[in-house]
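Hi W.,

Here's what went into the run:
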Amino acid sequence: MPQTLVQKILSKACGKVKVEVGDVVEPQVNLAMSHENAALVINQFQEIFSGTSLEAYVWNPDKIAIIFDHRVPAESKKTATNQKKVRTFIEKQGITKFHDIRGDEGGICHQILPENGYVLPCSVIVGTDSHTTTHGALGAFSFGVGATEMATVWALGRIMNIEVPATIKVIANGDFGKYITSKDLILYLIGKLTAEGANFKVLEYTGSTFEKMNTSARLTVCNMSVEAGATSGIVPADTETVRYLRDEAWYKGKLDLVQSDSDAKFDRIVEIDTDSLEPQIACPHTVDNVKPVSQVEGTKIDQIVIGSCTNGRLEDIEIAADILRGHKVSRNVRLLVFPASARIYKQAMDRGLFSSLLEAGAVIMNSGCGPCLGIHQGALGDGERALATTNRNFKGRMGNPSSEVYLSSAAVAAASAITGVITDPRKGGY
Amino acid sequence: MLKVTYKFEDDISTDIIYPGRYMATVLPSETPQYAFDDITELNKILNSSEKLEIPLVIAGKNFGCGSSREQAASTLKGHNVIVIARDFARIFLQNSINLGLRTIICPDIEAQQDDEIEITESKVINNSLKKEFNITPLPAARQAIIDAGGLIPYAREVLVRERGNNCKI
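Here's what came out:
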């Protein structure tokens, strides 16, 4: 019986020969990730044990990752106290994959996990963050869960009662034109599928465009798959995945490269030709309100954010620095740059990218999630408009319900920083 | 019989249900005050001293889309809210089931604020419109968690069965 990639991963994680779409399964978890909301997970974890004579210890401290990224450094005593509580728990439990607020190994969870070799093909990963879909870029089945569900994983090592999801196969063929990136591709796809078009389903990415794409670009696509409602996005692991894990994540162990069977049954197939793709913009207030840049060019912007788990990688900072080099950020705009991890921060600094950005007038911030969800720095004023390389533009997302957020690639963001209005980077002669 | 407290459109995100700025507040008992904080009118109704016994929220498609923040479910659970939606985003639905927030999937629901609603096992009846709408039953796996009283008691039972025979439950 043919199986999709995700069916195969779940079969293995359940110790079965095969699972069918719709089966209720309890797969073993290879990695369980949380950020500051580990404070709530700890509370729910202790609840599970309360009233029993069992001691509250996690099932496997080496398979839990905790990364502080949402409010770093802490913006309030409440956050600082929660972070302290989590550190105490980590020490007591002997949790090894802990990334505190540090300039050498800290950063945003969805960058920390892949760059440290924690994400392996064919594994099952859960995270108390909706953008846990990111890790499908390395061929893992990776999805977001709530804190209580995570508490049960900490206790039992498996996910309770999930249904094997159907898969939508996305086939993208072609090249990207100048200044077109995987962000434009995923925005275009979300516009086509709608915000709930893949709800309860997996998006599997194939075709020549994905074969040619590096892992960074794949991470962006899988990251935003949840914006079409998908449980997970996944790119079948291939030679690029092996290259990334060996050369960039220094992973030395065995790798399991698995693909969907050629006759596997898909929910549906969506085909995209990337040769003619234009820069795409998600307009307020839903991520599926996507338009080609030509339809929104000239829209005045007050703040530009380049960063986040979606587009805060070296390539994003590099393309922004290349566009901004020798130019000035418009006096009407604030440009904030948040590298996705301490490692990327150092790489960007060593390559001199920060000099170009700083000379143009950008502000370089430490790695973190803060402005993307309006919880730490970079809040918007009433009636202000932001253009961000982040992943959501919901009403109130950047901390102010009377503001607007547009989403784009780093190239569009950088070109727009110069002009102060939404700008097609292909027209600037950068 | 319940009265519709508030009617929403499609794609109501967790940023609307529980704004990100309150995410440092994590304990379920402390979250209810911030429910729908940016919709002042609704937040006031939910937090008023003359509390409604069961506030009823009607929504379109994809209610609860966005973040996995469990506060979005605990904040509504704290007010004893029932949400009837055309459908729900996956993580929000799972969180609601895990915490025991009553979520009803009713793909064709039609209702406006103040309409009078009756909920049976299989139907939502809008008495103001004199129309009935079918409820989509939850998959058996999710129903089992509800029947156990939420994911914590469900998982506790499994844990004790697997790890210990020395339990005090």
